[in-house]
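so my prof wants the structure for this chain in the tokens format not the other one, which i didnt know existed until like an hour ago. anyway here's the sequence
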Amino acid sequence: MNIKLKIVFTIAACLICCAGFKGYSQTVSPGKSLDVYLLIGQSNMAGRGTVDAQSQIASEAVLMLDKTNNWVMAKDPVHFDRASAGVGPAISFAQTMLQGNKNRQIGLVPCAWGGSPIKVWQPGAKYFENFPYDEAIQRAKIAMQKGVLKGILWHQGESDNDPKKAEAYLEKLKTLVGNLRRDLNAPNLPFVAGEIGYFNKENYINEIINKLPATVENTAVVSAKDLTDRGDHLHFDTASARELGKRYAAAMQKIQQKPSKETGKPRVVLTFDDAEITHYNNVAPLLLKYGFEATFFVCDFPIKKPGNENEFMNWNQIRELHKKGFEIGNHTGHHKNLTKLSPEEIKKEVAYIDGKCKEFGIPKPISLAYPGNRNDTISQRVLKEMGYQFARAGGAKYYKANEDSKLDIPSYTVISSDKYKERTMKALQDLKGDDVLVLTFHGVPDLLHPDYSTSMDFLKEILEYLKEKKIKVVSMKNL
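here's what i got, hopefully its the right format
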């Protein structure tokens, strides 16, 4: 073979390899919603079915977070806990969830560990060289930077399938669901558990698992009846693993389609602007005392006089608010009027806060508050392109989900003056049906901008009213 021909073949081979790599690597499509699902448990969630030709078929609509925390097109094995990982329920679950939903992508977050007992699925617990629970939370939060967490799939129980362990299993499972919802800041997150295979020599655990839906809201259990093992009386074979995934999807869809208990009840969203230090010192401790969610819209507010920087939070304090379970939203990099900026300048301002959040381990925001409540169709379009799902404006009216754009959500500004106090309390007292009232606070109190100040006494009055009337309080991202 002559040298020229060798070069041609070499270039062709490189192109083929590059094309193949590009086909497997995948970024989240900005034009589609990414529904994220966390997969946890032990080997039957990880999958031990034999990989076959069907396993090699990948789709741009189904992604998985690989072990380097990058999104790639999903194909079996989805998990990487052991060299024996194979076909599990993940892919068929995603494919079933996508039926009839062309404008969505599914993002799978594999975190199961073969052989792991339920006792290692708690904060700080170690399993060999891994921390299953902590790693699952960390990877879920990474995934939530690109998508919205829609549910958790749990398959575990084989390691606890004896009379003594089964006796304590339900309480441990209830604790696990509570911990996950707390640490992922998703109090109503759907959780679907699966029965272990009926081909196990003994079965103490399924009766216990099936008690979960009666004791914990928004949970379900999928049956393993009629499913077969791969010959070891422990692991589902390939066909059964895929059937199990379909059953998980049916259960998940049923939970997601079930009318919420909050339907027909008013909600209040508490939002705090400008990253003022009083949010960290005064507001957050009070909200934690009442058990209320809130969204803190942060920016690097322009400093006009030396010493004024002490009136704002630093990024370590902002990170602490995130760790306490509060939503961190974007208020643009430097509090600029977006209607006066070009699309590229808007992107730069929004991306600034995205970058700071990434630097400090805070999930990419999906909510934004327009500085001065000023926005237009151009700024809304840019936000949508950048993956934002909610954006708060002004207007002093209730938010109507079936009428108002999610990128132009109206709100009431709260100030301690008599005029604004009267307006705020009337808006609270008039809440009915499925009204959503979004309240915007600045400093509590606000020393640099006294015209926008809210006193601690007035904030306490509002929170006490919400508690007394049992009004649901949610963060912006949970609308």
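also thought this was worth mentioning. Residues 30-257 form a domain with the Rossmann fold fold (CATH 3.40.50.1110).
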